[in-house]
Each structure stands twice: as C-alpha cells, then as structure tokens.
Amino acid sequence: MKSRRLKRLIGMLSLSAVFTINFTQSYAEEKITNNSEESTETSTLLDQDYQDIVEKPYHKVLNEWDDVSEGDSGFQAVISPSSFKGDKKENLITEDTRGYEKNVWHLGDDDELSFEVDIEESGLYHVGMDYYRLNEGLVDPELSIKVNDEFQYFESRRIIAPTYWENESNDFEENRHGNELVPNQVAIEDWFTMTFKDPNNEFAKGLLFYLEEGTNEITLTHASGEMLIGDIKVFSPEDIITYERYSKNFSDEQTKDELLVQEAEHPDRKNSSYIRPIARKDVNAVPYEVSSQKLNTFGGDSWTKGGQSVTYDITVLKEGLYNITLKTLQDVKQDVPVFRTIEINGDIPFKAFENYRIEPSNDWMNQTLVNEDNEPYSVYLEEGKNTITLTASITPLTPLVNELNEMLQSINTLGLSISRLTGNQPDMNRDWDISEYIPDIKERFTVWIDSLNSYAKNLNTLYGNKEDKTTDEVSLELLIQRLESLRAEPDELPNRLTELSEGSSSATQMVGDLISRLQESPLSLDRFYVHSENSDLPAPKKKFLNRMSNKVKEFVASFTAKTFDVEDTDSDVLEVWVGRNQQYVELMQNMVDANYTAQTGKEVRLSVMPNEQKLILANSSDQQPDVALGVSVGQPWELAIRGAAHNLREFDDFEQFSSKFSPGAFLPMMIDDEVYAMPETQDFYVLFYREDIMEQLDIPIPDTWDDVANILPELQRFGMNFYVPLSGTAGIKPFMFTAPFIYQNGGEIYSENGMQTAIDSQGAVDGMQFMTDLYTLYSLPLQVPNFYNSFRYGELPIGIANFQTYVQLLSAAPEIRNSWTIAPHPGVLKEDGTVDRSAPGSAQGGMIFEKSEKKEEGWDFMKWWMSEDTQVEFATNLQTLFGPEYMWHTANLDAFEELPWQEEHKSVILEQWEYLKEVPKIPGSYMVEREISNAWTDTVFYGQNVRASLDYSVITANREIRRKMEEFNYIEDGEIVEPYRVPQLETVKEWMNQNDEE
Question: 343 burial class (0-12, 13-18, 19+ CB within 10 angstroms)?
C-alpha cells in the first residue's frame, strides 16, 4: 500500500503536471494570443445558443409578433373533415362516427392531414378542434402543427389532446384495514373540444399562429395515440370581459337562503387520472373518523401541474347570482400563493377568474372568491345542472420562468466557454486573466443580477406585496448573492466552476430549482360552497377542545390500528415483506385480495420493509418472512452465501417460468448453478439523444464506441459533449458503469474458479484503456451533476442513461417530449460484424427464505405476482392512480411488451435487454469494484499507465477475495477445498433453451 501511495504522489507531481498544466496552459495561451478575429469567432461559437439550432420558443416568437394584430376581430372559420387532404382516403369516416353528426377523420400511425383556410386580414389566430380519443391506456393523443409547411415555433411540434377521466365508482371501497381506497379511473369515451396549447400549459388562452392574408395551408401530423377529428376551427382571439361588464349582463338580485355543499373528493371529471382524493388524518377535514383513513380531501401534491383541471356538476334549484367559497389548505408551498382558472359552464365568466390567486395557508380556511376590496364575486348559475371547473394555472409566472430559462442557458454557456478555455482541468495554482479572453464577462454578470432584482420586485407584486419574503424570493436573493460574489472575482472562475455551473450548489442548479418551484401549483380542497351572499358557512376548523379530544382518541386508537408495518401473522397466512413505500404496498395488497386470494383462497399479508438490513437481523432471530419482494439485486446472494435463502431451482417448474426473463439478470442472484431470487424489476442503460439538435447539426447517431469518438470533435465544436454515467459519480465507480467497457472488449471480471480477479486480462485492459481515454484524450466532462438537466437544456444532447432519466424526461420535460428518443447502448464491433452491447441492468428481485415453512406457497405467490397479467395490471393501475412518473419497469419480458409505454422505446429497450449481462457476485467482489474505480482515478487524475494501475489493483483485490473465500470455507489453510464456480451467462441460456425445446 505504501508503494502505491508513493506511486500516486509521483504521478500527481509529474505526469499529472505534464498532462494537466502544460496541456491546458498551452491550449489557453494559444487561444488568448490568437488574433482578435479568431478569438471573436471562437467566442461566438462557444456562446451559440442551442435554441438557434431548432425553432425559437413560443414566447420569443410572440415577442417578435408584438406589432402584429390579433387577426380579424370576430373571425371564425370551421373546416369540416370532408375538406381535409391526406395520404389515405380511408381516413375519412362517414359511418362509425361515435355519435358525431358529421363526417370525421381518423388520425393515427403517423398519418398527416392538411386543410386550407382563407384569411381576410393577416394576423394572429387560434386553432382548435373537436376530437374523440381512440387509443387505450394512459398515452394522450399528440400531434404537431405546421403553418404553410413550417413549424412557427418549437412548441408547435407537440400538441396534446387531453384524455378526460372519471371514477369507476362514486362510492369509495375499503381495504382490509377499513381504510378507503382511491377508485379505479376510467377514460371518458366522448367528443371533446380543445384549443391548441403548449405542452406545459404556460399560456392558458392557447397558442397563437400567424396567418397571412389569403390562403394558408395548415398541416397536422400524428405523433402518438390515436383519435378521431371532427371540425377544426380557426378563430381570432377574444378578450375576456371585466367583472363590471359581466355583472351588468345579469340581474343584481342575489339568490337568497341557498347553500350547496360539494365535497371536493368527488369530482365528476378531470383531465389527469392521477389528480386524486387524499386521506388526511385531520379532524378539520370532512369526513373524518378516528380509527380509519377516509378519502376526505382532493388534490394536494397531485394537483400541481399547469393545465390540470377538475370539473364538478352542481345542481341549483333557482337561477340567479351565487357566491363561491373554497375550503382550502396550501401547505406544500407554505408561504406562496397559487393560481386557479375558474370556468362556469365551460367559459371563464370574467377577467378576474382567468388566473385567480389563492392565498397560502398552513391550516384549513374558507376563501370566498373576492376582488381586491374583499367584495365577493357573484356568478350567474342557471336552474338545474351547472359545471364549475378549476384549472391549475402557472400563466402569471410564465414570463419569469422563460426569462430564468434563458438565463440558465447563458450561465451554462459561460461555464462551457471557461471549461474549453482551461481544458476542463484547471490548475489551482495558475493565475488566469479571463477578461482578456471574455472582455464582457463582468457585464454579463451585471445583466443577470439586474434582471434578477427586477424579477424579485415583479414576484413580490404577483404574490401580493407581502412584507415577509417568500421562499421563492429568498431563493432569488441567494442567487443574486452568488452571482455578485462571482462577478467580484472573474479571474477565479476557472477554479469556481462548481459555484457557477458544475455543482449541486451551483448558480445553474439554483436557477433550475427555482424554475421547478415556480412551475408547481399545489392545492388541497376539502369542499366548496355555492351560496347566497348572506349564507352562514360552516367553520373551516373545529373548536380547540374538539380537536384535542379527537387527538387523544387517535392516540389511543393507534395502539390497535392495523397497518402495513411488519408484525406477526397467523400460521396459515403467507407473510411477504416488500421493499417499497406504502403507496405501492397498498395497491399490491388490494390486487392480492381481489385476485390471488379470491381465486386460490390463500391468505397473503404484505408488509412494508423499511430497510433491507432488517432481513438479515430477522433471519438471525428466526423472525424472517416467507417471501421478500423489492430486494436489491445483490441482497439475495448475501443471504444465500450464509444459508438463509432458498434455491429456487428446486421447484419443478422453475426453468419453465424463468424463461420469461432476461438470462443475464440471474447472474448476481446465483451461487454456482443455484438461483436464489427472481428478477422483479429491471433497469436499462440506453443511448438518449436529442433528435432536433443532432439532426440540425447533421451528426449521426453512434452505434459503436468508435462512432462516439468520431462525433466528439463536432459536438465539442459547438460547446456540447457526450455523457457516460461515469461522469455522474464523484467517488466509487460501480460495476454498472465500468463493466460494459470490460465485457464489450471481451474481458471478464473474475477468473473461472472465482479465486481471483481477471481485470488484468487483455480484454479488460483494453476496456479500461478506452474508458480512461474518454476523459484524457476525448475530453468528456469529468463531472456532470445532473445529466437530465444538461440534456434538457441542450448542453449534453446525447449520452447513456437509465430508467430514472427516462422517467424524468417523460414526466418533467414536456417541452422536449417529441424532440428526443433512445437507441441501444453503444458497443464494440466484432470480427463477425456484430456489435457487442453487453451492459448490466440491475434492479430488484424476489426471494424465498430457507427457514420458511411455506416454500411451495411462496413460490406459487411469486409466480402469480411476476406473471404477465398481474404485472401489466399493476403497472397500469400504478400510473393511472398516481401519475405518469410512476412507471413500472417489470422484468417479465412478455409483460413489458404490454406496458403503456411508447412502442418505439419499448422495442429499443427489449433489444438492449438481449445484451443484458449483470456482474456476478463472489466473496470479496466489492473490493474488485473498488479497485477498478481506483485504477480509473489513478489514470485519469494522476496520469498513471492503465496496466500499471491495474497491476496494483489486482494484488489488493485478490488478497481480499482469498480472505473472504476462507471466511466462507472455500479455502482452508491456503488451499482450495471447494470450488466456487462463477455463474456464466451461457449456463442460464442453456437451461432456458432446453426448456424451450421441451
């Protein structure tokens, strides 16, 4: 170890200095001393905004249209499907129109339709349509729109036709503990009308399109989903009238003695299936019970995205003017108001209801809809049924969000400029004169700071001119302080990039976090009242003594309350621990009760397992469950090597059932040829890339690592780069990030007998060499705090990432939804012309304990739970009830094919899973993982030779392997007494193929 430390020190003082200091110094000096024209050209290239590569965003285009009139006032053109033009004549449907009284047009499978509209006056116009959703599942139909054969702005590439949902039942069912369950959601099959909007719903009135005088051709292209289209309307925008004008249209006679109470947890329809009722153990919420959970409120953090709407049907006995009072709680963003657009019978009645501000409250309060003088607004309701729609709105904050997005890109651009200047490896001991290379650097900071100060004032006005600063305003102040500190010492920026653009506490991260907060609009509703002006409303909170009394009752009831916590069960009940949160476990238990127990008569009790280490402790004290689910991929091996896990290959139908899963997923769950767990969920590492950017730069999508090396110069010429997961970890580089390079180059991690590592073999050395060359020769970024953000904003338009990034992009980056896709993991071209894409994909598994007396029952349950039908049903229910981000990446290949994911993405993931090769486990494998990471660090940071670094790593790793082999009785007195056969992928494929032949 001493020699290794000495070697590192020498490397740091010599090779590192030669590589880092001399290279970056000469590179920077060459850039700085170039003639002014070349410097200007380079600076311009570095500062190029990626948005210039694609269409401009809507808000920028709208500003350019500032002097364009809003079209011919009162104009409306209705274009029927009979006038549409398309590639397929059969798209025009004249008979099965689903209740539409005219012809309709079928749009799906990348179909395209176009139509012409004559405009008398050039200007800005809205476009809307009638539509009927045809596709099943959770995917909303989507299309893009071109005007005169061009996208007028970026958002026109993605127009969403929302699906409307209703509860399958108006009565809340109860689970086995007496707690109410969120009802299943059913898509409403009906015709709806929409105005085209941006995917983020930042502009509540809808998108405007510039149409020239004369004939304009509008083209709609299918993007996803399937639908029927009825009439399309092109119309001029109309201003919403003021309340004063609205009130003059109706009698000023207020309806007397009316009080209608609507429980918020029972909406009639909504445009997101996952805006759901919430059970709050709160005596002030109605209804409330001491001993059980009642779904008594609505929304909360599930009702926070702009555009999410919920509609209630209200029946009044007498037409007239009514007040509306909401019983609200806003404790998610505790000090910040939120906004809701309020529609009565499908229309916004007057301007004040367009983006009505709802004040924050840490406790329940009645908020009557009032004007600035605290005078209630009165709305006209007809006799009989009326609708009241509440829509989450972020429109008031949209200008600020857009400005912050532009600032974020500018700060990132400056960070990239400095990284390129310093060679991405700045010398802490070198003095830089950044102002000589970027003369206006202080002015840039000044512009950002002045803008932020202006934003702070606007935000304070928007939030109601409060004396106490909100969290958002404090975040702005901290950001301003950070930028002021950086502006004061611009020449220190090469050594302070973690404060500017490259760290979890950097200015870019602070801006990104603020943008995310501003786009959230959470609100909880208990109930609302439609009432006459002088109605006596129920108090929002119980009296103090009443609240205290119920708290005491709750405390007493908690000793006997039934929950999903781990507890003793009856001897005839199968006990299953699940390593997931209560939302998942509750849904799983409901499915078990409704399906498995109902069909088999076998009782199963699921419990939340808060910590995997509890499995080891429970087994040692004979309190282990029968089955454990949601266990990390390496945990079954840890239990099996100690005799605590049951070998699943002892079941007669194991090999038949296992054929439904990827062979490579079993490797870390095996000892010799014995299998101790089944894969339950499965991760994937694939290539993510921005189609818009790569297409506009004319950069091909790489298939191999040689292709990656070939595109890097062109990417870096535009200040962009390629991402590999190694850049996302600051410490140990785990197997899942390093193994692909070793496997794809023909290397192995261990020797065949498992008694030593094989990372010094030629294939492994070749893999390590390229893995380090990516940083030392090809200048990949050493650290990327958040690939999702860098990908979203275009700094890293291509890179390798996993399921987590996939979910983030789908659920939290709607503005680029149709601008990115995935491809298989880059690999190494073999002599036979094939590409080896071997990569791990570890996730969670399920196992049976050796001490269980219900092994057969446990195996029967695991087969049901991991079967195709059960997995598809669970995945669908999960997303329907809790939102699109609750994606379930089942390991059952047949089930995965049926999930409500994009078909082209599923095919890529399934293709990559053909190369799934997880790293097996042996005693001491953790040391091999650590030593590969050490070798990478020695080479990249200290300039050592790869093979020399691996030689030191092999010695340390083999010493630990032999020590652990002796601990588990594979070695005794230095001699091998029992062979440890490292699980092989070919072995698993062999038993699966044998089963297929049978």
Answer: middle
Whichever domain contains 528, its CATH number is 2.60.120.260
pLDDT of residue 36: 33
Provide Rg for the chain, Cα atoms: 31
Ramachandran angles phi, psi of 961, nearest 5°? -60, -45
Please give the Cα distance from 846 to 844 (Å, whole number): 7
pLDDT in tens, 440-492: 999 999 999 999 999 999 999 999 877 888 889 999 999 999 999 999 999 99
Residue at 878: amino acid letter: L
* Domain identity same for 538 and 593: no
What pLDDT, on the 0 to 100 scale, is given for residue 185?
Answer: 93
Q: What letter would DSSP give residue 440?
A: T
Contact 340, 523 (CB under 8 A): yes
Q: How far apart are CA 757 and CA 735, in angstroms?
A: 13
Compute the distance between CA of residue 58 and CA of residue 81 in angstroms, rounded to an integer: 28
Q: 10 Å Cβ neighbour count for 257? A: 9
What residues have CB less than 8 Å from 678, skipping those under 6 apart? 648, 658, 661, 669, 845, 846, 847, 862, 866, 891
Q: Which amino acid, one-letter code, is at 759?
A: I
d(CA 701, CA 694) in angstroms, rounded, equals 8
In a domain, 986, yes or no: no
928-932: list long-range contacts, CB under 8 Å, 24+ apart.
928/749, 928/750, 928/757, 928/759, 928/957, 928/961, 929/732, 929/734, 929/735, 929/738, 930/732, 931/757, 931/759, 931/956, 931/957, 932/733, 932/735, 932/738, 932/759, 932/768
In a shared domain, residues 723 and 780: yes
Q: Record the pTM.
A: 0.82
CB 767 within 8 A of CB 742: yes
Give the pLDDT confidence score for residue 73 in this predicted structure. 81
Q: Encoding tokens for residue 350? A: 């007057």
Q: What is the side-by-side order of every strand in the sheet holding 185-187? A: 185-187, 165-167, 269-270, 309-316, 384-393, 338-344, 356-358
Q: Find residue 801's DSSP bridge partners.
A: 686
pLDDT at 416: 73
Q: What is the DSSP letter of 242?
A: P
In 515-580, beta strands by DSSP E? 523-531, 574-578
Rounded to whole angstroms, the Cα distance separating 274 from 183 reads 11
Where the chain has pLDDT below 70, the residues are: 1-53, 251-254, 423-428, 502-504, 543-570, 994-998
Query: pLDDT tens across 757-772, in order?
Result: 999 999 999 999 999 9
Give how far the C-alpha of residue 315 lies from the chain's centroid of Cα atoms, to the nearest Å: 40
Structural domain count of the chain: 5
| Phi, psi of 501, deg, nearest 5 | -145, 0
Looking at residue 757, the DSSP 8-state letter turns out to be B
Same domain, 707 and 846: no
* CATH for 776: 3.40.190.10
Task: Report yes or no on 691 lying in a domain.
Answer: yes
How far is the CA of 498 from the CAs of 369, 418, 495, 797, in angstroms? 46, 12, 8, 21
| Residue 555: per-residue pLDDT | 57
Strands of 136-273, DSSP E: 142-147, 159-160, 165-167, 185-187, 191-195, 209-211, 214-224, 227-235, 259-263, 269-270
| DSSP at 282 | -
C-alpha 911/C-alpha 914 separation (Å) is 5
Give every CB contact of residue 197 below 8 A, 6+ residues apart in sequence: 159, 160, 203, 204, 206, 207, 307
Same domain for 963 and 907: no
pLDDT for 503: 63
Decide: helix, strand or coil at residue 222.
strand
